Amino acid sequence: xxxxxxPVSVLKQERGWTDTMVQKFxxxxxxxxxxxxxxxxxxxxLYRLDRIEEAEATELVREALSKARASRSKRSSSALxxxxxxxxxxxxxxxxxxxxxxxxNLSELIDTAIQHYNRRNIEKVADQDSESSFxxxxxxxxxRHELIDYDMICHALRGQVGRQDAYFLLKDRxxxxxYSTYPELL
Length: 186
What we know:
- With 186 residues, this protein is mostly helical.
- Helix content is 64%, strand content 6%.
- The protein has eight helices and three strands.
- Strands 1-3-2 form a three-stranded antiparallel β-sheet.
- The mean pLDDT is 91.
């Protein structure tokens, strides 16, 4: 019966070891195997389970594992706090963006939205006789994408913590302003 071999990645992820602890308490690996994910990557370091358990039974390793887990937990809570601060900051920034909907003749606006829609779509043609809900939708989309800086703001949200919530907040604010300027589009 062969003794199970544990890769360093499992030692770190599941048992709480660090690279320093592996080097200090286990030393050289019992076996090296080719990297299963990247042929040119470093070889996989494997350690016998009995050696790992023997090391984990010592007071010195138990203390080191306890410290590593506490440090990892502290880093995790700090990262979560930073994430929440960044998210809140982004939401506050989006909430403070001035949104000005240009006021014009609604009939002319709908005509312009129809022309814009028809230039961009070849499968479905819009006209004044199209379904009311469809005309309202394409007019709101026209206002959002062509008359304000919506797309530029969305682009600026990319890669930001909380971007999904910020996107929804931005869209909701814009739609509220559109409906307040043009209640007929509601």
